Amino acid sequence: MTAPSQQTASILGLDAPVEPAPTPTRPPLRLPSWAAPALAGLAMVAVVAAGVRTLVEGVGRADVDVAAARRATDAWLAAPSGGGRVRNDAVAAAVATIGQSVAAPLKAQLGGRQPRFVVLDDEGTTRAMSMPDGTVVVTTGLLRRLIDEAQLAAILAHGLAHIANGDVDDAVRRHRAGAAIAEATTLAAGAPAPTTLVAAVGDVANTSFDAVEEREADDLMMEALAAGGWSTGGLSAVIADLGARGPRKRAAWLVQHPESGDRAEARARARKDGRINAPEFASRILGPLDRPAGASSSTTPSATTP
């Protein structure tokens, strides 16, 4: 006997075979005539972009021969169209002493490079340049814009940070300067540097850094300054002064090291008190600057310069 529920189901036809619902069909996608070439172009852009990323990011940092880079830097400093006159006097010695105080905390990050600090007798520019061999170059024009040793320590530590972080090695690769730098090992003592070498090193010396590189250099600079016992507010004061002339007369250093709001805020948060040495800066650097360099200037850094 059929159960009542089964009878009801049978009467209602619920036990009848259920036909599957037909699968809806969609009309084939038809692209306009211009779409295929456009998609092909986008695919090509993606392939090229991937290749560029491989070249820029995947290869890693440039494999710079440090000994060759030191010789190339010396050749650039000696060339009239390169660095020009190098001071080997009390100013250079004072700058080197301050530089070594911030270089010591960065020894591990510098990867075997021997830090060196060079002063160019150039009153017309406010520049600080980071070289692939570990040299940081500052001009007398920049020194005259500073007011204390803490500011100079910040400039030198920031320059070393770009070297330690690999930013300068990246610039060597970006400017394709590696081959020219390597050729420095073949230069005879006292021989003039080829124009290609001078131009390649000059491109690296004058490179501009991006916002990420600047922020990372600031972070490492702050560590070096604090470890060296310096006030860490020096760079902010320098940037404020160099930018006071407005964009049309912006200092060369500020063009190479663009400031941003987040950089300034990060430095402010990490600021620590330390020595400033304004009177010492006036007596050790500004005073000797007002005396003619005379015979103390040369075309290459002194062997006694650290």
Describe the 3D structure.
This protein is mainly alpha-helical. The chain has one domain. Helices cover 51% and strands 6% of the residues. The protein is built from 14 helices and five strands. The chain has a five-stranded mixed beta sheet, sandwiched between helices. β3 and β4 form a beta hairpin. α4 (90-103) crosses α6, α6 crosses α10 and α10 runs parallel beside α13 (261-269).
Give a brief outline of the structure.
The protein has 306 residues and is mainly alpha-helical. It has helices spanning 4-12, 35-58, 66-78, 90-103, 140-143, 149-164, 167-174, 178-182, 195-205, 211-227, 234-242, 252-256, 261-269, 278-289; strands spanning 86-87, 116-120, 128-130, 135-139, 297-298. It has one domain (63-294).
